[in-house]
Design a protein that fits this description.
The chain has 413 residues and is of the alpha+beta class. It is built from eleven helices and 18 strands. The strands form five sheets. Strands 2-1-18-17-16-15 form a six-stranded antiparallel beta sheet, with helices on both faces. The chain has a five-stranded mixed beta sheet with strand order 11-6-4-3-12, covered by helices on one side. It has a three-stranded antiparallel beta sheet with strand order 8-7-9. The chain is elongated.
C-alpha cells in the first residue's frame, strides 16, 4: 500500500508539474511564435489595455485599445508631453519682484514648482547686485492662482507627495528638520536656514531623529513659511529686513517692477524630475500653469482640463471623450485614458524616452493605485524605440510579466 500510495502521489505531482510547464511554457520557457506570446499576454488581462508599436509606428499588438481606464501616474507622461508642446523646452518659471516708495518688497509667484532654497539664494545675490541692501518689509502676492485650489485625489495627510499647489510655493511646501538627542531643532539641509515656523514644527519630531514635514494641512503656514524663508535667506546674503513680519498683498499700481527671476531649471530638467521621482506636486503645478498660460490667469483646475482635452483633439486628432484628466498627476481615481491615447502621445513625443527611468530593457513610467497596475514607455531594440502601453485595472498585478513578454516579442519579431 505504501508503494502504491507513493506512486499515486508522484503521478499527481507529475501531472501538476506538467500543467505548470504547459501554462508557463507558452509564456516563458519554450521558444514561441509572436502569436503564442500575444495569446499569453491576453490570458493575463481581465480588464485592461495592451499596445505595442514598432519603431515606425506600426501596431504590433493591440488589445482593448479604446477602453477607458484609470491611468494612475502614467498620466504624467501626458502632462510632460503637453508641457513640451504648449510651453516649449526653453520655458522657465518666473517670479516677479516689485518695490514701492516705502521700501517694501512684493514677491509675486507664478507657480514655480522649483522655488527651493538654492534658487532663493540666487535671487538674493541678484537683488543685492542690483543695489537692494535693505527691505522695510516683504509682501507676498499669490493672485496668479485661484484661491484654495484643491486637487482631486489629494488627501490631507503629512506625506510630502500630497503637498498642496499654489502660486508661491517654497521647498515643495515641506520642511526637512533634525532634532538632536538634547532636543535642539535645526534644518537638515545646508542651504535652508531654520525659520521661526520651522522651529515650532520641529517640536513634533522625536529627539534624535530627522523628518520631512508637509505643511499642507494649513494653507496659511505654507505662505508664512515662504515669506520667512525669503527673509532668512535675504538676511544671510547681507540684505537687511527691517520688519520681518510678512504680509499678503496684491502688487498694484503703487508697486514698481524691480526684477523678474527665471528659474535656473528649464522645462526639460523639471520634466526629468517629474518622471523619475513621480512628483505629484510638480505634475499639478504644470497642469495648472499650462491651463493658465493658454486660458489666462488666475490658474484653475478647469482651465487645465480644458487645455488637455483640447490638446488630444487638435494635436493628436483623437475624438473627445478618450481622455478625462481631472488633474495632472494621476492621483485621482476619476482620471481616465484609453490605450490608443497613451500610445499616440508616446509616438508624438519620443524625446520623452530620455526622461523616463530604466526598467529591464525598457524606459518607462509606472502607475499604481489600488487595483491599478500600469506601465507606459519604450522598449529599446537594436533599431530604435518601440512604444508600449500596459494598463491593468484588475486585482491581479501582471504588468511585470506582460512587460517581459513584450520584450520577448520584440526580440523575436
Amino acid at each position: 500500500m505504501n508503494v502504491l500510495l507513493c506512486s499515486s502521489l508522484l503521478l499527481k505531482k507529475a501531472a501538476l508539474f506538467s500543467t505548470f510547464l504547459l501554462f508557463w511554457g507558452f509564456s516563458h520557457t519554450i521558444a514561441r511564435t509572436p502569436e503564442d506570446i500575444e495569446r499569453s499576454i491576453r490570458a493575463l488581462v481581465t480588464n485592461g489595455s495592451i499596445i505595442l508599436n514598432d519603431e515606425s509606428g506600426n501596431t504590433l499588438i493591440s488589445h482593448n485599445e479604446s477602453q477607458l481606464l484609470m491611468p494612475a501616474s502614467i498620466v504624467k507622461i501626458i502632462t510632460s508631453a503637453v508641457a513640451i508642446d504648449l510651453l516649449g523646452t526653453d520655458f522657465r518659471f518666473k517670479t516677479e519682484f516689485f518695490r514701492n516708495s516705502q521700501g517694501e518688497l512684493a514677491i509675486k509667484g507664478w507657480g514655480d514648482p522649483f522655488m527651493i532654497s538654492e534658487e532663493i539664494g540666487l535671487i538674493a545675490a541678484e537683488l543685492k547686485k542690483r543695489g537692494m541692501h535693505s527691505i522695510d518689509r516683504i509682501s507676498l502676492d499669490n493672485s496668479t492662482f485661484y484661491p484654495n485650489i484643491t486637487i482631486p485625489g489629494v488627501s490631507r495627510t503629512l506625506n510630502p507627495y500630497n503637498a498642496i499647489n499654489g502660486a508661491l510655493v517654497t521647498n515643495f511646501n515641506t520642511l526637512n528638520l533634525r532634532r538632536s538627542a538634547q532636543g535642539t531643532i535645526s534644518s537638515a539641509e545646508e542651504a535652508t536656514p531654520l525659520t521661526p515656523l520651522a522651529a515650532i514644527m520641529g517640536n513634533s519630531i522625536a529627539a534624535g531623529s530627522t523628518r520631512r514635514i508637509n505643511l499642507s494641512d494649513n494653507r496659511e503656514n505654507c505662505l508664512r513659511y515662504a515669506g520667512e524663508l525669503f527673509v532668512e535667506i535675504f538676511k544671510g546674503a547681507g540684505i537687511e529686513v527691517v520688519n520681518e513680519s510678512v504680509s499678503l498683498s496684491k502688487s498694484g499700481e503703487d508697486w514698481e517692477p524691480f526684477y523678474t527671476h527665471y528659474n535656473s531649471n528649464d522645462l526639460t530638467t523639471i520634466n526629468r524630475g517629474l518622471q523619475r521621482f513621480s512628483n505629484n506636486f510638480i505634475a499639478n503645478q504644470l497642469f495648472l500653469v499650462i491651463g493658465a498660460e493658454n486660458r489666462g490667469y488666475p490658474a484653475t483646475i478647469e482651465k487645465g482640463r480644458d487645455v488637455f482635452e483640447e490638446y488630444i483633439k487638435t494635436r493628436l486628432n483623437i475624438a473627445p471623450g478618450k481622455l478625462v484628466m481631472t488633474e495632472g498627476s494621476g492621483i485621482s481615481r476619476s482620471n481616465r485614458v484609453s490605450g490608443n491615447v497613451m500610445i499616440e502621445v508616446l509616438e508624438n513625443r519620443k524625446e520623452l524616452a530620455e526622461l523616463l527611468p530604466s526598467n529591464r530593457n525598457a524606459l518607462l513610467k509606472s502607475g499604481t493605485l489600488t487595483g491599478v497596475y500600469n506601465y507606459a514607455g519604450y522598449i529599446q531594440t537594436d533599431t530604435g524605440l518601440r512604444p508600449f502601453v500596459i494598463i491593468l485595472n484588475q486585482d491581479a498585478n501582471h504588468r511585470d510579466r506582460i512587460l517581459d513578454l513584450l520584450i520577448e516579442y520584440c526580440n523575436i519579431n
